Amino acid sequence: MSTVSRQLPDYYEYQEDGTIYHLKQVRYPEHMPLLHRWMHEPHVIPQWQLNLPLVPLSVYYEKMLADDHHRLYLVGINGQDMGYTEIYEGARDRLGRYYDGDPDDLGWHLLFGETSAFGKGHLRPVIRMLSYFIFEHSNAKKIVGEPDHTVKPYAVVVAELCYELQRLIPMPEKTAALYYCHRETFLNKFPKIPQPQVSASASESSIA
């Protein structure tokens, strides 16, 4: 079955202010040591709660990669992998229990694993890249988000990037802030969609 998320490209590049950002799909088991290290970083643990030993974390990712309602990517900056994102289908995700979703809705979760990326002004371009990526490669009319409402820096940044707060949602592990980013609003403010470089090589497309 070719789901909305499975139709997304395996690789994407975006350039802003001379910096090249990329998304490349997670490959298993190749990327497990990197993800394991990031999930044990002190700044990652509170939000992600995946600071598991390597074997349980590998089992978790085996299940994640088999689930066809999302795609998992590494986020790179100037050729170096710096973070991780999950792009998911909102209506088929657990979030679908909490809002009236459209089948084409896509959302994302994001972390910067490398602390060297902090304070360099990368968050806004990466979120802009994710938004372009989704709108260019899907029929999504909106992007959804559900971060913990206590993460204040997120709220400030996404408001600048056309993510509009809808309401608070009580979830088991957090009170989430439901955001929508509408295609028309985003592309009116940021009209130039970059041309991605999509790799068709087997090395980029295998998940094994």
From TrEMBL:
Domain Acyltransferase MbtK/IucB-like conserved: 24-71
Biological process, per Gene Ontology: siderophore biosynthetic process
Keywords: Transferase
GO MF terms, alphabetically ordered: N-acyltransferase activity
Top-level taxon: Bacteria
SUPFAM superfamilies according to UniProt: Acyl-CoA N-acyltransferases (Nat)
This protein's pathway: Siderophore biosynthesis
Any Pfam family hit: Acetyltransf_8
Name of the protein in its database record: Acetyltransferase
Organism: Alkanindiges hydrocarboniclasticus
Source organism phylogeny: Bacteria, Pseudomonadati, Pseudomonadota, Gammaproteobacteria, Moraxellales
